[in-house]
Every structure is written in structure tokens, then in C-alpha cells.
């Protein structure tokens, strides 16, 4: 899930938000302001209901962020790089740069999220009880009680043993420990996710038939997401297994066409290097890579009417560009090939010099070649030409 805009960094972890958050934020805020709060405590002015609903929705998303931050912090403790956290329609996702190194790490990374949500639920419940004792049952008490219930519900739902939920990762950790085979573990958790996805979709359709249109459609939407995510997770695991042991040097495109940082964009567009065969260009200043110029960034700058800008001023800096070494495993860079870089990874040698670039088409060619050899050679790995 890609971020639409960034909120900043917490503990060195980039926090982003997808536009779909606006929808669920509005649903929660208006649902509380126009439903639960006035029903439980009638007679207050409507601006007060809206204000309490908005504050409650903000705190709820803060709870989701705490859930994902817990995953990220524990993951970093096991040496797993965290690309960032994105809040979106169905909560949040911590983007890991690679898989957990072993079943124990997988268990702890996955399990800490529901534990944090459960702890927050208990804390909010205690706070609601304290408020009720001090001030009686008020709008504030109702809002805090809702936060307690939703966090406990979030913990329980996320603990269900089905991918891509945290419970699915817990199941994957258990199967990995029992079988010693990561791929089989992922497939088992993904199968459970597919079953759960179909079950939620069917339950939602049944609810629609009974007249609960909103709740039913929401279940269908959640079920569809779980089904699609579980299917994608299984496919990605199979791809990583196929690419296991393949070094980046055997997949990359060597000696890529580069762009100088001091060139104006309009001059670059007037006479693009290597014709129109590339979508991203490493930016190199006197043999030193300094960033990456992507067509998406070019479109943005052109739309802003800034064609006279220097490439060095509009490029994605090297600090925000994905890099890898020639000896790194292709399977390890796959989870990182998302975001503003267009799936491109710059390959740098030990001296920091650019020696190649990896694009999605490079990965696809390698997968096609390797998959074509598997029926004849079983599980043996061969290096693509």
C-alpha cells in the first residue's frame, strides 16, 4: 500500500498516510457524532458531538499507529529493515525490507501488535471506568469506552490465524517451526486467509439479503481484501523461493544510461539518452551516484511548469533510493521494490560506484527463465543468463 503523503518520522521510521484513510476517518467520526454519541447522550449541541467524534477518530488512528510501530520496533531489533508505516483504509501496514530471519523472530514481530492493541484497550477501559466514577457517564466517558472496545476488537480480529492478519503470521511462524520450510508455512497461512476471506464475503452477502446493507457490504469489502492479500502473499513467497540464491549481479542491467545532475530537464527531454527505452535514470556526478530520476517525477515537474529545473534539483536523492550490492540476493530486495523509485534498485560496488540497475522487467525475465527450468530440473537453482 503506497502512501499519498507523509506525516514525518517517529523513532526514525517514516510515517505515511494513504488517501483512503480519509474515508474511514470520516465514517468513524460521523458515525460517532451522528449515531452512538447522541443516542447515548441526547440533548447536547451538534458541534459538540462532531468535536468529540473527530477527537475520538484521531485517537483511534493513533492507536493503529502504535500497533504498527510495535511491529516495526521489534522487527528492527531482529535486524529487519523497516521501510516505513502507511495508514490506510483497513488500518495500517509496516513495510518490512525483508522477511524475519527465523520462526521465533516471526512470532515476536507478529505477536507484539495485537498485544499492544489489547493493552491499549485495557488502558482505555480503565480510564473510562475512572471517568465514570469521577464525572458520571458523559460524552467523554462514552468516547473512551468506544476506544476501549474497538482496540480489544482489533486485537482479537488481528489474532485470527489467517494471512495477512497478524494471526496469520503467528500461524506461519508455528508452521515454519514445525516443518522447517518457510514456503510451506506461508502457503498454509495463505490458505487459511483465503478461506476466511471467502467466509467473510459470503457472510456479508447474507447480511445484505437480510437488510443490513452497510454492514454486509463492509464485510464483503474486508473479505475481498483478505482474499486478495492472502493470494498475493502466497504468490510473492513462491517468487522469492524461485529467486532464492540468485545474486543481483546475474539479474541487473549493467552499465545503465545515466543523467548528469547539472543538466536542465528541458534539455534532457529534448534529447533523451538511449531514445525512449528507459523509465528511470541513475543520476551520476563525476562517477558518483547521487540519485535517481524517474518518469513519474518528470511528469510532476512538467505539470508544475518547471522544465527549466536542473535534474539534480528534482531527482530522488540517493538517501531515498533503493540500493543493493552485486552479491546481494534478489529475493532479499524484492520486498523493497515499491514506492517512489518505480521498482528500480541501483547496484553499487564496494566502492560506491554504479555498476548496474535492477528493474521489474529484469526480475520478470529472471523469474520466467527460472520457472521454465524447474519442470526439467526439479527444485535445482540455475543462474539466468
Characterization of the model:
- With 385 residues, the chain is α+β, with helices and mostly antiparallel strands.
- The chain is 57% helix and 14% strand.
- It has helices at 20-40, 46-77, 103-135, 139-158, 166-179, 182-209, 213-243, 265-270, 295-303, 311-314, 330-333, 360-377; strands at residues 5-10, 13-17, 82-88, 91-96, 253-254, 280-285, 288-294, 316-317, 323-324, 345-348, 354-358.
- It has a 4-stranded mixed beta sheet with strand order 1-2-3-4. The protein has a 4-stranded mixed beta sheet with strand order 5-11-10-9.
- α2 (46-77) runs antiparallel to α3 (103-135) and α6 packs antiparallel against α7.
- The two termini are 33 Å apart.
Question: Which features would summarize this protein structure in a list?
Answer:
single chain; 385 residues; four-stranded mixed sheet; 11 strands; 57% helix
Global outline: globular
Distance between the termini: 33 Å
Gyration radius over CA:
24 Å
Oligomerization status of the protein chains: single chain
Strand order of the biggest β-sheet? 1-2-3-4
Helix share, percent: 55-70%
The chain-level mean pLDDT equals 87
Low-confidence stretches: 376-385
Number of separate helices: 12
How would a textbook summarize the main sheet? 4 strands, mixed
Class from helix and strand fractions:
alpha+beta
The strand count comes to 11
What fraction strand?
5-15%
H-E string: EEHHEEHHHHHEHEEHHEEHEEH
Amino acid at each position: 500500500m503506497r502512501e499519498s503523503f507523509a506525516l514525518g518520522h517517529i523513532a526514525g521510521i517514516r510515517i505515511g498516510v494513504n488517501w483512503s484513510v480519509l474515508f474511514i476517518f470520516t465514517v468513524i467520526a460521523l458515525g460517532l457524532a451522528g449515531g452512538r454519541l447522541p443516542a447515548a447522550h441526547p440533548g447536547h449541541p451538534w458541534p459538540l458531538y462532531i468535536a468529540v467524534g473527530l477527537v475520538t477518530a484521531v485517537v483511534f488512528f493513533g492507536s493503529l499507529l502504535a500497533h504498527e510501530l510495535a511491529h516495526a520496533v521489534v522487527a528492527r531489533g531482529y535486524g529487519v529493515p523497516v521501510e516505513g508505516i502507511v495508514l490506510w483504509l483497513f488500518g495500517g501496514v509496516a513495510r518490512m525490507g525483508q522477511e524475519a530471519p527465523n520462526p521465533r523472530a516471526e512470532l515476536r514481530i507478529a505477536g507484539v501488535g495485537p498485544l499492544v492493541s489489547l493493552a491499549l484497550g485495557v488502558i482505555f477501559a480503565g480510564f473510562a471506568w475512572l471517568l465514570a466514577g469521577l464525572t458520571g457517564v458523559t460524552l467523554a466517558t462514552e468516547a473512551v469506552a468506544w476506544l476501549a472496545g474497538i482496540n480489544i476488537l482489533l486485537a482479537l480480529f488481528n489474532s485470527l490465524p489467517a494471512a495477512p492478519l497478524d494471526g496469520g503470521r503467528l500461524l506461519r511462524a508455528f508452521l515454519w517451526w514445525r516443518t522447517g520450510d518457510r514456503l510451506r508455512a506461508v502457503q498454509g497461512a495463505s490458505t487459511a486467509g483465503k478461506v476466511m476471506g471467502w467466509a467473510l464475503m459470503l457472510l456479508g452477502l447474507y447480511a445484505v439479503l437480510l437488510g443490513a446493507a452497510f454492514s454486509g457490504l463492509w464485510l464483503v469489502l474486508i473479505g475481498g481484501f483478505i482474499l486478495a492479500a492472502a493470494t498475493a502473499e502466497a504468490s510473492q513467497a513462491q517468487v522469492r523461493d524461485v529467486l532464492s540464491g540468485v545474486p543481483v549481479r546475474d539479474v541487473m542491467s549493467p552499465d545503465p544510461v545515466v543523467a548528469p545532475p547539472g543538466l536542465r530537464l528541458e534539455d534532457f527531454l529534448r534529447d533523451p539518452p538511449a531514445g525512449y527505452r528507459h523509465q528511470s535514470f541513475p543520476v551520476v556526478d563525476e562517477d558518483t551516484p547521487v540519485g535517481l530520476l524517474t518518469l513519474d517525477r518528470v511528469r510532476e515537474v512538467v505539470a508544475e511548469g518547471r522544465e527549466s529545473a536542473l535534474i539534480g534539483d528534482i531527482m530522488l536523492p540517493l538517501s531515498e533510493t533503493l540500493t543493493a550490492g552485486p552479491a546481494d540476493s534478489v529475493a532479499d530486495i524484492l520486498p523493497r521494490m515499491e514506492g517512489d523509485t518505480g521498482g528500480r534498485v541501483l547496484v553499487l560496488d564496494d566502492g560506491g560506484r554504479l555498476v548496474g540497475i535492477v528493474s521489474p522487467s529484469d526480475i520478470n525475465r529472471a523469474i520466467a527463465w527460472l520457472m521454465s527450468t524447474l519442470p526439467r530440473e526439479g527444485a535445482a537453482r540455475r543462474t539466468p543468463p
